[in-house]
Amino acid sequence: MKTKVNWFNSIFIFLFHVLGSLAVIFYFYKFGVNWYLIILGFVFYILTGISITAGYHRLFSHRAYEASPILEYFYLIFGAAAYQNSALKWCYDHRIHHRYVDGKDDPYNVNRGFFHSHIGWVLFDEPRKEFPQYNRDLLKNKRIVWQDKHYLAISTLTSLGLPTFIGALFGHALGGFLVAGLARITVVHHATFFINSLCHMWGKQTYTDKNTAKDNAILAFFTYGEGFHNFHHLFSKDYRNGIRWFHFDPTKWTIKMTEKLGLARKLTVTPREKIILAKVAMKEKLLSQSNGELCFNFADELESLKQQLSNSIENWQKLKVQYLKALNDFKVEKSWEAKRNLVQLRIKLRMAKKTYMLNYKVWLKQYKYTLKYATPALV
Ligand SMILES: [Zn+2]
Ligand SMILES: [Zn+2]
After folding, report:
1. Closest ligand to residue 90's CA
2. CA-CA distance, 284 to 272, in Å (whole number)?
3. Relative orientation angle of helices 184-196 and 35-50, to the nearest 10 degrees
4. How many Cβ atoms from other residues are within 10 Å of residue 29's Cβ?
5. Which residues pair with 265 in a beta bridge?
6. Which residues on adjacent β-strands are paired with residue 4?
7. Boundary-marking domain end, from 196, 230, 265
8. Which ligand is nearest to the CA of 63?
């Protein structure tokens, strides 16, 4: 494969990294550590990074929710300030990454090593197959097309011009340029590049082993919550990456907050039973790959509990279909009979949900017990 240096990207990244870092150290050495500048840098770090994860990634690439034009403009303007290409190009690359993950067409294929998946793919150009179907819908969004057309001007003004201007307001124009501009761009670059590199290298495969994506709570801390990458690769339409309330996912919280403010709507959430079944299937796989001997009759016991779980989920799904139909009937008929039917089904649905959650907990307990006592090779 013929590889050429992308001089434009390489020179910019070199300037941001080396000269930017040296200049910041020199600036603080000469003028002392300035907390206004550090706070300004942190604010820009949050605004531009979240615009990449909540905007470029979960909104534009995956359509995990819908956003008002104001919010789209916000993400397009501050996303450009992260200097990671226009949303149109970023989303195209990212969609190809999901579709051909770990393969030769994956732009940041981790199987080519850490350097390539982290930053090498930005510094070097190689001939790539075109997949026009992956940005057709994006080209219909006039705001995305506008940002792509004026990308260089928007990104330069917002990533370097704006911090310089704000810095100048309190007498530190150069400091604003260096700290909230150059240094912040470098930090945001690496925070988001980690998603393509380390999030495909370190962590657990909780939901699928069909690709290299990993769940890693520590990386989530450095990647605005994108560290739960294994979940994301299987359920990429979900607006969340960290699904539990305690999972550190500031991108998810931002999206939820914008929904409360009336700026976002139709947040996609993966049905809980789908997540449970994926988790169970992965754990079963782990057990079957173990070299340990299953003592007693643990395998049969686990299988029978799994059957109970599957049956209870199926029952809940059937009831849900009936409930939605009853809800529709009630809206049309508005009769007492329809209302009674609806209430009865609502109660049954709640019970069915409780049952499958209980069956899942029992299965999980048995699974842990099996791992602990019956498969010494895994312990
Ligand atoms: Zn990935
Ligand atoms: Zn993605």
Report:
1. 2
2. 18
3. 30
4. 9
5. 66
6. 125
7. 265
8. 2
- Cα gap 195→189, rounded to integer Å: 10
What is the span of the domain harbouring residue 226?
Answer: 4-265
Over residues 89-138, the pLDDT tens digits come to: 999 999 999 999 999 999 999 999 999 999 999 999 888 888 888 999 99
From the CA of 201, which ligand is nearest? 1
198 CA from centroid of ligand 1 (Å)? 10
* Residue closest to 218 by CA, chosen among 193, 194, 186: 194
Q: How far is the CA of 137 from the centre of ligand 2 (A)?
A: 16
Burial of 107 (0-12, 13-18, 19+ CB in 10 A): middle
Domain finish residue from 246, 265, 284: 265
Distance from the CA of 20 to the center of ligand 1, in angstroms?
29
Distance 184 CA to ligand 1 centre (A): 23
How many angstroms is it from 119 CA to the middle of ligand 1?
14
Report how many helices (DSSP H) and strands (DSSP E) the chain contains, helices first: 19, 4
**Number of domains forming the structure of the chain:** 2
In angstroms, what is the span from residue 9 Cα to ligand 1's centroid?
Answer: 22
Q: Is the pLDDT of residue 293 over 50?
A: yes
